[in-house]
Specification:
alpha/beta; Rossmann fold; 9-stranded mixed β-sheet; 4-stranded antiparallel β-sheet; 24% helix; globular
Length: 245
């Protein structure tokens, strides 16, 4: 293993499998396979449990979290994919993981106690001002939300948190965007709405692992400063963060 590498590909009979260098102790988070290589423990990224893992299995070669970066993760749920993102950014990076539902947040909070670089935040991605005091400018934004307005949520959070030329990864769930359009039409609409602010990689369908899902990724094209909050923002309640860096 070369120093600094955190994502590995193994050639298997069923196809390539992807593994991240585990930071958690114990290493396994959701029942995934683990293996020891030299002085590290690797975790297999299960594509059926993770949209980003599915994208890698389908040949995604676009934007990915890198060692030392800070990422904001919206819709972290129990932390399955967020844990792999935390592996990728390593101990010198950090993942701010936002989840609004109490039941999965309880498990995410427990996971945050095992991960030195994962900060769970109880908050609503519709209200970025609520967690603005807790999250500094980030290098990347990962969005995985079953919301009709998931594209608008991504754009608004990018406006507040994403550094100039920062990266966006959006696990687009077209089934949540209405039945009046086909999945491909929803994808085309999402690309059109994101294109003014992002130079997008070629979108990738995630079937058979995740039906009616696509991964959209790319880099911000503008260089706006992170805006200051308004003088008296309307807040929906105080979010909580387990850890700040």
């Amino acid at each position: 293993m070369a120093p600094g590498e955190r994502l590995f590909v193994r050639e298997d009979r069923e196809g390539d499998s992807h593994w991240t260098v585990a930071l958690s102790e114990p290493a396994a988070v959701y029942g995934e396979r683990v293996t020891a290589v030299e002085d590290s423990v690797l975790r297999r990224w299960d594509p059926s449990r993770s949209k980003l893992g599915a994208a890698l299995a389908k040949g995604w070669d676009g934007a990915l979290p890198r060692s030392g970066e800070r990422w904001l993760y919206l819709g972290a749920a129990t932390g399955t994919t967020a844990s792999h993102v935390a592996d990728l950014v390593g101990r010198d990076g950090f993942v701010f993981a936002v989840e609004k539902s109490l039941r999965p947040f309880a498990r995410l909070l427990a996971l945050g106690r095992r991960y030195p670089n994962l900060g769970p935040i109880l908050g609503d991605a519709h209200a970025p001002l609520d967690y603005l005091p807790m999250v500094p400018p980030v290098d990347g934004l990962y969005v995985d939300l079953a919301q009709v307005d998931q594209v608008e949520i991504a754009r608004e959070n990018a406006r507040w948190f994403l550094r100039p030329s920062g990266m966006l990864l959006l696990a687009l769930k077209t089934a949540s965007m209405g039945r009046e359009k086909s999945p491909r039409d929803h994808l085309a609409s999402a690309v059109e709405r994101l294109s003014p602010g992002f130079e997008l990689d070629t979108p990738l369908g995630l079937e058979p692992f995740h039906k009616r899902h696509f991964l959209l990724g790319g880099r911000a094209t503008g260089a706006p400063a992170v805006p200051e909050p308004p003088a008296s923002p309307k807040r929906r309640g105080a979010p909580r963060v387990a850890r700040r860096r």
